[in-house]
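#struct-pred
JK: can someone run the complex with FE2/S2 (inorganic) cluster? inputs below
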Amino acid sequence: MAYNLQTGWVVNEQAPPDSLEAKSRHPAPPIRRIDKERYFSREWMQREWDRLWTRTWLIAGVTSDLREPGDYFTFDIGPESFIITLTPEDGIVALYNVCPHRGNRLVHNDFGSLPNFTCSFHSWQFKLDGELIRITDEETFRPEVVAHRPCLRRARCETRAGLIFINMDENAGPLDEFIGLPDGYLEHYHLDEMFVVRHHISEWAANWKTGVDAFYETYHLHAVHPETQTVMNDMQVQCDLYPNGFSRMIVPLAAKSARVADQDSVDAGLASMMRDAGMDPDTYTGSARELRQVIQQAKRERAARCGIDYSDLLDGQLTDSWATGIFPNVQIGLHAEGAFLMRFLPHPTDPERFYYNTMTLWRPCPDPSYKVPDWMGLPEGTDVSGETRPDIERTGIGEPPNLGLVLDQDSELLPIVQQGLHSRAFEGPLWSEQEIRLRHFHAELDGYINGEK
Ligand code: FES
Ligand SMILES: [Fe+2]
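RT: done, structure tokens with the ligand placed:
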């Protein structure tokens, strides 16, 4: 198949133009070489804080983490921290995690459940929605100091398809106008029925965009993750651009890389995918070429047997990863069984560090024969009933995140890429059309930084 520079690869040529699988015709941004300072300069970092992070919608977490009134979790980004909580009166709200008295952080842990918030410094107390309940020894304050009844400041907060977004800009447009994806795109995956079964935060010695860039393309897979080539067609990936910096790549799974000569034999990786779909690989006599479709069929039949609803999902969605970029700093790997939500979060002070915050989400099924697929990489014994919320695991700079071979490979390489970006000889990236999502992402980012957004 000859490569078409206008359309790139298309996974399903027959997809109707109005289907979610169809190639998006959103225009690509002009071709130019971006400056490299954005990856390490402190001025850039500050501009990003002033013009991007404090003005755009950001994924703070998932609705399934807030089940009862009083449940809360914290979301930290750069120098800020927020408490996201479910209130009896106002639903989910986002509060700046700071006491108006002397600036103490109200909540110091990742999540929990409380009837109200009590500051650990001088015991001022606030309702879940941030309203002031009590000032300790209030008679010792001159009335004019506290006459405005200081409460916890709120950030904007809206939800979509089980995802909780916040925005620090009081004048920002509504979330629905910001989401550049077609209607139903996220909803079809039933993210609101999924639970966090693993949550990991690792710190990497690279800029957050060095991270985004690496996860927005599959061009590097043959070199960095060659073992993926037996289960993933890393080359014939459909890249789609959507408004507002959003994008998607459809990565065909249960298919061998077009770079591999032997397209017929079924090796260990594909056999494992067959078992994940409830099939017995020993009884399969066909070629690996047909396996993607065979697995789609098997998964559809198994879903009907196990009582889990796949009716919203196209065949391709049953095998492939729809890696979806939510501007500015999120990619969700969407799958029929669950999702892998990764956030690239800037360090509070160092442009050459970021936090890679990953949640594995799982949609529980009443039938115990419906098992978590191997490739999701959950540790042995993980509770997938949705009843317990796992603690966040954390790893620091230089430690392998222990998220499986592929991610450990990325974590080793990215700090080295970050160093190379500084070289006098490096004049900014040269992107192929396999990296078109990077062009789109950086063009949108430039819009914010240049004050056009
Ligand atoms: S800082 Fe919170 S009560 Fe004093
Ligand atoms: Fe990678």
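RT: quick notes.
The mean pLDDT is 97.
The chain is about 20% helix and 20% strand.
JK: thanks, will look after standup
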